[in-house]
Design brief:
The complex is a heterodimer. By secondary structure, chain A is mostly helical. Chain A is built from 10 helices and no strands. In chain A, helix 2 (14-39) packs antiparallel against helix 7 (152-176), helix 6 runs antiparallel to helix 10 (248-281) and helix 9 runs antiparallel to helix 10 (248-281). The model of chain A has no long low-confidence stretch (mean pLDDT 91). By secondary structure, chain B is mainly alpha-helical. Chain B contains 32 helices and 4 strands. Chain B has helices spanning 2-7, 16-40, 44-69, 72-89, 92-134, 140-207, 260-265, 268-271, 274-277, 286-290, 311-315, 325-337, 367-375, 377-380, 393-408, 423-432, 446-451, 470-478, 480-483, 496-507, 525-538, 581-590, 611-623, 639-653, 686-689, 692-700, 726-739, 756-768, 800-803, 806-814, 816-819, 844-857, and strands at residues 215-222, 228-233, 661-662, 665-666. In chain B, the strands form 2 sheets. Chain B has a two-stranded antiparallel ribbon. In chain B, strand 3 (661-662) and strand 4 form a beta hairpin. Chain B starts with a helix and ends in a 12-residue tail after the last helix. Classes of the chains: A mainly alpha, B mainly alpha. Chains A and B meet through helix 4 of A and helix 2 of B.
Chain lengths: 294, 869
């Protein structure tokens, strides 16, 4: 555990540890308030009858908060020195080479996907998906008060995407990824010379179909299995539509919006599934083509 | 509490307590920041205060000493003289002169003005007069005015001249008095000089500001992107006393630098400290600056002898540096150990292989001996430079088999073999002609002890009889190049009989471990093939020339950036050695197979370096970096330096320093020779001293004892014949010339003609100085008993004409000790003063020239003196 402690208390990791605590605390706070509101008819926020002016009542509190933050930052900067390392050298990069902490999630995804998927496609989809939210969220409830009951799908999906696919990957990248980007448990020392068995296989090989034939050309059967798997995954969207086409939500969404929501949702859910397949079954690629691999 | 508060409407909530607490926290935080910034993070301020205290105490002592040494009676004397001199300045004569002087100066000014005005008026009149002339008329009035003014000018000028003369004579009178005052004042200043100096120093130290002392070199470094990068050194912020005489024995960090003469060349004021010592220049605490507290700093302080490693950054091309004996010695150890045979080392890729050729080994020794040798060379000779490969018996057999097979195919026949030498005579010869300068024959190991290395430069001969036959020894000592054309072993010009005697003596030196414990199979082609594989794998051809391995490349890694090798790149195997560069290298040099594991085989053989050699080799390895400062800091490797380095390597190759002292190194044969007069000469200044053609002839074929061209024929030790090629001799000549700051030029020393007048004088001085008391000056060998003993004899002067450079003789006569420290040649011209004031007007230089001319004239055969036309 000493190693974990040493990593957590490294000056550049302290804010990440603090961020983790704060994220969990605020999530809990929001959920606690939502629960309270959901149990009663009138939300707590609605009980506050009056509105007050920003100036001076809000600005006053913000000023006090600014004072406190400045005091904290001053003490922080005195007690924790900047964690400087060697002078930068392009021919000798540090091991592990880590992205800025807020990109560690993306760097972690690089382990499971090819660079152009992990570094280009997925971030693009994240941005597009976030931009699309106002247009595909047709649920008018939950404005100005905490609630869970009225926005279950939205909140669960968001929390999954944010906490599991973003924050936890940052934590994983910060505290569990050591030299060689190898996975180290908290009780393990970060050993540069650690040897990891390389036994990854492709999805089709799980079923005894090799990805490549003896002459190193791609095996069409393997491609078939991979394509079928991916198509099968996305067909869940269509099946659900057929099943629930008469429900209110699906009707309100309409086919286009439904297609967008379902597509983004399925892509998002495919991500952790691929991660699990890798971690548990050593699956490298689902589909290998001459142009791209998934 | 917060719940109650939540009930209060926001408009009436009171935030004063929060405000006071938060503002207070911020205030305290800010105060802390100030204290932190001014004191906590500036520990060097305390260091500077401590320095001031230390320095003030020490300087005060000097001031007190200066006060005690002060000659107050002389001071009083001078003060009294000064008062008297001032009085006489104020006396009637001087006062009167001074008064008149002032009056004269005033008159001069007035008279000068009158002259100027007259001249100006005249110029005006001249203008009008000339103008009228050009216009065709004549202005009589103007002409009149011009003439009048010119005559006025002449009158004024006469007065001015008179006044100036008066002024000068008055000035001279006053000067006489004032000069005396100035002289006494200067004497007083001189008297107080020391005291004033220390008092000024004291004031300076006391008022020295507390401040960061920084040296910045704008373009010293390059960053990894190859842009110029400034290097900032603040070491002198704490190491304040580095250049202070008074801080000679002060405690660190205030102590004076121990090598001020090095700092005179590498000025810390402009070059900083980290250029040599490394460390983190900008840091201001000891831990960060030295590197212990900053594991990320790539250049921690070089401690102990390793500071010499940094010489290499600017002096990479040199194997020897005068001011850096450890640096030179480290490179020498690397060269002598033959590291370059297996590793690529920048600058040392074309050195000759250090081991002997193995092409004819079948004619030299027995398979049993080779087998034992290959298995572990130290078994037979603990001081061999050949390392131990830890071959198994089977592997050793295979290597032996290949060598036997390969060398048996090479055509070769031994020339000797007549036998019948006299071992007793051989022993006497062996001990007198200098064999032991390189070869140890137990129990005589003085040379080895003096060298202090764990290895010998030539094989120990204590058990040589059980290795080689008398016939081979005879062939070898007669002409080593017959058996091995690339050997460094020189010929000592033995006669056939002498060679037989030495062979008889040496072949009797037997002993060592029992031979032939294993019946060797030398004919199986499988085993021979295996041997070939082993030789290739273990890189035997790095040191030896082996038939079939003429074009092998180096078997191991390049060391070009080894000093920067990172700990992560080093494999520590299963050992408990601390994970540092130093520990790894130390352990590797001590036992090169130390880090081997059951999976990682290591092929580097095991050397037997002693602790000092390990330290030096580690220093050398530490210096192997690609760090190179900006070009202007790097020593230029110009033609002269190249010549020196090239020749130096020839000298290293042939081991000149085993007998001669050269560049302040070597002369190990001295361990065997009790009488300093019989030592081989110090040859550092040879280029300045001897004529190039003589040097060539001498190196080509050194004189044999007893032959008339020998300089000191009475010495038994022989300068061997190295069979140098003309190219090697040329390189050596340029080396010696370079060391003596001489250019290679075409000179005809024979055309030198002495001045007949000087010649006569030279001869008489020569007699007066009794040169012949020590120097023989005849062709005949000195008769025994002529001098007190041969150890009192000096070089034969009849050789001077064809051997010495004329200008060197004069320089030598002027101060022999300057050219060769500790020489027994007396100085006849101390401080350039001649003891013979009557000869040639007492001109020392002329007298030396006269002696020189005489010396040149007594050369054999005597040259006709041609009088000047």
């Amino acid at each position: 555990m000493n190693h974990l402690l040493r990593i957590i208390t490294k000056p550049d990791n302290v804010p990440i540890a603090v961020m983790l605590v704060l994220t969990l605390y605020y999530t809990w706070l929001a959920m606690a308030r939502a629960r309270k509101n959901d149990r009663q008819d009138l939300s707590e926020e609605a009980k506050l009858s009056d509105k007050v002016q920003v100036w001076p009542y809000l600005v006053k509190v913000e000023f006090l908060a600014a004072l406190l933050i400045m005091a904290i930052l001053t003490v922080w900067s005195i007690t924790l020195n900047a964690p400087l390392e060697e002078p930068a050298n392009p021919s000798l990069t540090p091991n592990p080479s880590k992205a800025p902490w807020y990109f560690l999630g993306l760097q972690e995804i690089l382990v499971y996907f090819d660079p152009w998927i992990a570094g280009v496609t997925i971030p693009t989809l994240i941005i597009l998906g976030l931009c699309a939210i106002p247009y595909i969220d047709i649920n008018p409830k939950g404005n100005g008060y905490y609630t869970f009951k009225e926005r279950k799908f939205a909140i669960v999906t968001f929390l999954f995407g944010f906490l599991v696919l973003w924050v936890s990957l940052i934590v994983l990248g910060t505290f569990f990824r050591g030299p060689g980007w190898n996975l180290f448990m908290p009780w393990e020392e970060w050993d540069t010379h650690r040897v990891v068995a390389l036994t990854n296989i492709d999805w089709s090989e799980l079923f005894g179909v090799p990805t490549r034939r003896v002459d190193d050309s791609l095996n069409p059967f393997a491609m078939l299995i991979g394509s079928a798997t991916i198509l099968g995954w996305f067909s869940f969207g269509g099946l659900y539509y057929l099943w629930k086409r008469n429900s209110d939500t699906v009707k309100k969404l309409g086919p286009l919006r439904y297609a967008i929501v379902a597509g983004l949702f399925l892509i998002m859910m495919a991500l952790p599934i691929k991660i699990l397949l890798r971690l548990m079954l050593n699956v490298k690629y689902i589909l290998v083509t001459p142009w791209f691999n998934i | 509490m917060f719940k109650d508060r939540a009930q209060v409407p926001i408009e009436v909530r009171n935030y004063s307590v929060y405000y006071i607490v938060f503002a207070g926290l911020l205030f305290l935080g800010t105060m802390w920041a100030v204290v932190d910034e001014v004191t906590t993070r500036r520990p060097w301020k305390d260091v500077q205060r401590a320095y001031r205290q230390e320095a003030v105490t020490r300087v005060q002592q000097r001031v007190e000493q200066a006060v005690a040494d002060f000659d107050s009676s002389k001071c009083n004397d001078l003060n009294a003289q000064l008062a008297a001199a001032r009085d006489s300045v104020n006396g009637p004569v001087c006062t009167a002169a001074s008064g008149e002087h002032t009056q004269v100066l005033e008159d001069l000014i007035n008279e000068n003005r009158r002259y100027q005005f007259a001249k100006s008026r005249g110029d005006e009149a001249y203008y009008f007069y000339k103008k009228a002339l050009h216009e065709g008329g004549e202005d009589r009035k103007a002409k009149e005015r011009l003439d009048r003014n010119e005559s006025e000018m002449a009158g004024h000028m006469a007065v001015i001249t008179r006044l100036e003369a008066r002024r000068d004579s008055l000035g001279a009178i006053m000067d006489r008095y004032r000069k005396e005052v100035r002289r006494i004042q200067n004497a007083l200043i001189d008297l107080r000089k020391k005291l004033d100096r220390w008092e000024a120093k004291l004031a300076h130290v006391q008022s020295a500001p507390i401040e960061i002392k920084q040296v910045m070199m704008i373009d010293y470094d390059r960053n990894p992107f190859n842009d110029a990068k400034a290097r900032v050194d603040r070491c002198q912020t704490c190491h304040l006393g580095w250049n202070e005489e008074v801080m000679e024995d002060a405690p660190e960090p205030f102590r004076r630098h121990p090598l001020p003469e090095l700092l005179a060349v590498h000025k810390p004021e402009t070059m900083g400290c980290t250029t040599c010592h490394r460390g983190q220049g900008p840091a201001l605490t000891a831990g960060s600056a030295h590197g212990e507290d900053d594991p990320y700093w790539e250049n921690p302080l070089l401690r102990g002898i390793e500071v010499w490693a940094s010489c290499n950054e600017c002096h990479e091309n040199m194997s020897h540096l005068d001011g850096a004996p450890l640096f030179s010695s480290a490179k020498r150890t690397m060269i002598e150990s033959g590291c370059f045979g297996c590793h690529e080392i920048k600058g040392y890729t074309d050195l000759p292989k250090i081991g002997p050729e193995l092409a004819h080994i079948v004619h030299k020794t027995t398979p049993d001996w080779v087998f034992r040798w290959v298995r572990n060379p130290k078994d037979y000779n603990a001081h061999t430079r050949m390392p131990n490969f830890r071959f198994s018996d089977d592997q050793a057999e295979a290597v032996t088999a290949y060598l036997w097979d390969a060398s048996a195919r090479m055509p070769f026949t031994l020339a000797g073999g007549s036998g019948g030498g006299d071992a007793r005579r051989g022993k006497a010869l062996f001990e007198s002609i200098g064999c032991q300068a390189c070869h140890v024959l137990e129990p005589q190991a003085k040379v080895r002890e003096m060298r202090g290395t764990s290895y010998d430069m030539a094989p120990e001969l204590t058990r040589v009889g059980s290795k080689v036959s008398a016939a081979w020894i005879e062939d070898w000592v007669k002409n080593p190049r017959h058996y091995n054309p690339t050997t460094r072993m020189p010929s000592l010009r033995l006669t056939d009989e002498e060679a037989r005697d030495v062979a008889a003596f040496l072949s009797g030196q037997k002993g060592g471990p029992v031979e032939g414990q294993r019946a060797l199979n030398l004919t199986s082609s499988v085993i021979i093939k295996k041997g070939e594989g082993l030789i290739r794998e273990y890189g035997c051809a790095g040191c030896h020339q082996i038939p079939g391995f003429e074009k092998e490349s180096r078997v191991s890694v390049s060391l070009s950036n080894f000093g920067r090798k990172r700990v992560e790149e080093m494999d520590f195997g299963d050992t408990k050695v601390p994970h540092t560069w130093h520990a790894w290298v130390g352990a590797k040099l001590k036992d090169s197979r130390f880090f081997a594991t059951d999976r990682i085989l290591q092929k580097m053989p095991i050397f037997a370096f002693n602790a000092a050699e390990i330290a030096k080799l580690r220093l050398f390895l530490l210096a192997q970096t690609k760090d190179e400062p900006a070009q202007r800091f790097v020593e230029t490797f110009d033609r002269k330096q190249q010549n020196i380095e090239t020749g130096r390597r020839i000298a290293y190759q042939y081991n000149c320093q085993q007998c001669h002292q050269l560049e302040k190194e070597g002369g190990f044969i001295g361990a065997l020779i009790d009488e300093p007069a019989f030592l081989p000469p110090i040859i550092t200044g040879e280029g300045k001293k001897v004529q190039e053609s003589w040097l060539h002839d001498f190196l080509k074929s050194p004189s044999t004892a007893g032959k008339p061209n020998s300089v000191r024929p009475w010495i038994g030790t022989r300068m061997p014949t190295f069979s140098l090629t003309d190219e090697e001799i040329s390189k050596l000549t340029k080396y010696f010339l370079g060391l003596g700051n001489q250019e290679l030029e075409m000179r005809d020393y024979r055309s030198f003609q002495p001045d007949p007048e000087l010649l006569r004088v030279g001869k008489s001085i020569f007699t007066d100085f009794q040169c012949l008391k020590c120097h023989p000056a005849s062709v005949a060998p000195p008769k025994p008993g002529a001098a007190a003993s041969t150890s009192d004899l000096a070089p034969n002067l009849t050789k001077a004409r064809d051997r010495l450079k004329p200008e060197w003789i004069v320089e030598w006569l002027a101060d022999p000790n300057k050219l060769q420290e500790g020489t027994r040649m007396p100085t006849f011209f101390p401080d350039g003063q001649s003891p013979l004031p009557d000869v040639l007007g007492g001109d020392a230089r002329k007298q030396m020239t006269a002696i020189r001319d005489y010396l040149i004239s007594i050369g054999e055969p005597v040259r006709p003196v041609v009088s000047a036309r």
